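Side project, low priority. Logging it here so it doesn't get lost.
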Amino acid sequence: MMKTLFRISVLAALLPLATQAAEYTQVDVKQSAINFSYQQMGVAMDGKFNEFTSTLKFDPAKPAEGKAVFDVALASIDAGTEEANGEVAGKDWFNTAAFPQAHFESGAIKALGDNKFEVSGKLTIKGKTIDVVVPSSFKEEGEKGIFAGSFTIRRGDFAIGEGSWSTFDIVANDIQVKFTITANQQ
């Protein structure tokens, strides 16, 4: 009898938590950002991408079942000036005429505790696909879920900067990608 009462008490205590779980599927692009930073001639530089589309499915109670797909319009880059934007859209850099999008697709989401997650997936830029691990945090604010994180790619792995730009003496090889993604519940 005591065991049964204990089990009922535990289930009753957990029930409110289970009903609060929600699935986040609708990315609010206007409240989201994909930024990047790098070094050029030893000086820190920042930029962002203004357009992307996504498919998201995330339930904080079942993170392993989650899925994320992002397509970033590379021509939407803001590297600080119109001249820089035109240069990086060109053939030696992103070659947006031939490769208009970067694509990320998650393969696994692993809970690390304390609202931290590790998202493993594949990132494709300029036709080259590389496995990446993206550390991310998640917090709920009302009916919104906010994902934030950063990871580093090496531009040489994707041939971003070809010809005379393929060395790393002027523009560093490491590019840090930083994101904040706001999503609404289903």
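Brief comment: The helical segments are 2-20, 82-89.
Revisit when time allows.
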